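hiii so um. not sure if this is the right channel but i have a protein structure encoded as tokens and i wanna go backwards to a sequence. like what aa goes where. can anyone help
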């Protein structure tokens, strides 16, 4: 049982993703967000437990990617699919209204591609190349829950939703280095980029929650992307 504990936690991640997908297809977006958050917690714990117990193997790595595709790929796709049925369609897009929701599953496809690249890319041992799938899933889930009324309003129509979704599909596979929030030491010099990100993220969380609600999570993820690009360009 102890040897299989990391895989059990990974399967809990997978089950959370299945529950999030089911909730999304029934329009229960808040519950879907909660399940994606649970999946992210299990995704963090399985790796931590595996390292603590010094347990590693090819099955665990493959299982982790399969679970992540469901929780951080299929589940947010299901939420966007439902959102496409709620948004306003300009008159010229009316003929596309029955079909455009299915483009939401591009998020699942690009998430799978991003995970496959992560598993085979030696550059991503201590950092990321492209937006991590958990960050992408939490961005969409928190944005839909917190700003769903705005996203479904005439000010944000189906065309903008489609373009916005394509932009994040690109972020998933973009050749842009993003730092990982892993600390080997607590020193300032080697962690100043992470400390700067966390300091501003805390300000966004505390000051932004009043106006944005749970969508403040999406704001933090946008800050993460922006700060990583700034650091990359400066370097």
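sure thing!! here u go:
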């Amino acid at each position: 049982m102890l040897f299989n504990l990391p895989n059990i936690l990974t399967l809990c991640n997978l089950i959370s993703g299945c529950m999030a997908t089911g909730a999304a297809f029934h329009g229960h977006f808040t519950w879907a967000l909660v399940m994606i958050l649970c999946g992210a917690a299990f995704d963090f714990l399985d790796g931590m437990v595996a390292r603590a117990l010094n347990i590693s193997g090819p099955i665990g790595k493959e299982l982790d990617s399969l679970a992540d595709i469901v929780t951080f790929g299929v589940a947010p796709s299901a939420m966007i699919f439902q959102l496409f049925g709620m948004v306003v369609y300009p008159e010229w897009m009316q003929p596309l209204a029955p079909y455009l929701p299915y483009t939401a599953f591009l998020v699942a496809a690009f998430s799978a591609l991003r995970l496959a690249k992560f598993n085979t890319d030696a550059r991503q041992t201590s950092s990321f190349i492209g937006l991590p799938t958990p960050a992408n899933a939490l961005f969409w889930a928190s944005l839909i829950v917190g700003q769903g009324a705005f996203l479904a309003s005439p000010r944000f129509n189906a065309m903008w939703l489609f373009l916005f979704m394509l932009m994040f599909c690109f972020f998933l596979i973009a050749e842009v280095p993003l730092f990982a929030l892993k600390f080997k030491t607590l020193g300032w010099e080697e962690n100043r980029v992470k400390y700067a990100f966390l300091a501003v993220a805390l300000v966004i969380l505390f000051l932004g929650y009043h106006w944005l609600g749970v969508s403040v999570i999406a704001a933090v993820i946008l800050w993460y992307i922006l700060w990583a690009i700034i650091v990359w360009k400066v370097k």
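oh and Strands lie at 127-129, 177-179.
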